Amino acid sequence: MTPDEYLSTRVDEQIAWLSANSQGNQHRFRRLRLAEMCLATGIPVLAAYADVHAGVRLAVAAAGALVAIIAGALALWKPQELWVQYRATSEALQREKMLYLTGAPPYDTGQTFPAFVARIEALLGSENTVWAAQMLQPGTAPPADGKG
What we know:
Number of strands: 0
Radius of gyration: 22 Å
Number of helices: 4
Low-confidence stretches: none
Strand content: under 5%
Distance between the termini: 28 Å
């Protein structure tokens, strides 16, 4: 495999995948957290009217249940952790790529391509190890982003 083939089929594809999934997890986390906050702050407001309107008690109970479901989903799928992890790995891959392409240390002497491949594969291996450890934690399910 040539350096150009490796860059396009391994490095660039991994950077694209990690960036897209980091962004997806960021959006998922923020939407769920915002919904959780809105529901949680609405409960006391609704509770103040529970004696006035009969249906408000049901709305308070439903809002409380939804808050619990959202909190559980956040703990189960860990979108915040995945967002940060994927972004960090993507940025590390981009950094290595730039160092390699510019011939900056440690890619300024000798056999640079094998060293580059070794460092990239170490980063990817580390990312996979961290992901697997997160998924083995009790109460965690693989995310629906294709990684699991």
